[in-house]
Amino acid sequence: LAGTVPEEPRCTVERADASLTYSLFLQRFAFSRPVILGGVTDNSAFRALCTREKLLAAFGPFLVRLSTANTYSYRKVDVPFQEYVEHLLKPQDPGRLGSDTLYFFGDNNFTEWGPLFQHYVPPPFRIPGTSPAYSFGIAGSGSGVPFHWHGPGFSEVIFGRKRWFLYPPDKTPHFHPNETTLAWLQHTYPTLPPAQRPLECTLYPGEVLYFPDRWWHATLNLDTSVFISTFLG
């Protein structure tokens, strides 16, 4: 589905390509600031398995756990994957609260989804003392996760475009915890002085964003999107 959210061409997140070495990643980004990595993985095989038809054929009857798209809620709803794709995977209603918006991301049953994840090629960098865990998601245009923070990680776009907003740990963003990212973008973002705007960028398929520990971040899917994160815990 075509996105209903206009793309912002401005990108204030630094970019790096496959020439970035592991030592330079640790020195420049791992503990200090986010970076967008291009050309560091080839997930064409994984992408071929993530089309609507392939995913419905493989996982249609399996239950998936949906989360509300707000910041401080733990409400979960289990539905068959096919029901989510055919009835809930739609553009975000701008007037709908995050606490009433269900989103498939992160709560993956690894017994069922494990065979798919075996085909995913994660980014080649790690943080010493951490181990990776995958979180896979699919969401409609205009949807997203509002501002929150946790440990470091990578997030790769498989299909669609995904806009990111990031603040360092010492700059708590102004947002309502029950407001969707789309509502924040429409109501709060335009009022921010330039010095109070987040780092931001739109990611395209095959691009990977790295975010350090405790960085605030929010996401907005500009299209119906498929994405996967590698959390370093």
Written account of the structure:
The chain is an alpha+beta fold. It has a single domain (20-232), classed as Sandwich (Jelly Rolls). It contains six helices and twelve strands. It has helices spanning 22-30, 44-48, 52-59, 81-88, 110-117, 181-187, and strands at residues 15-16, 35-37, 63-68, 76-80, 102-105, 132-139, 153-159, 162-167, 199-203, 208-211, 216-221, 225-232. The strands form two sheets. Strands 1-2-10-7-12-6-5-3-4 form a nine-stranded mixed β-sheet. The protein has a three-stranded antiparallel β-sheet with strand order 9-8-11, with no helix packed on it. Helix 1 links the parallel strand 1 and strand 2 (35-37). The longest helix is centred in the first third of the chain and has 9 residues, at 22-30. The radius of gyration is 17 Å and the shape is globular. It starts with 14 loop residues before the first strand and ends with a strand. The model has no long low-confidence stretch (mean pLDDT 93). One of its GO terms (molecular function) is cis-regulatory region sequence-specific DNA binding.
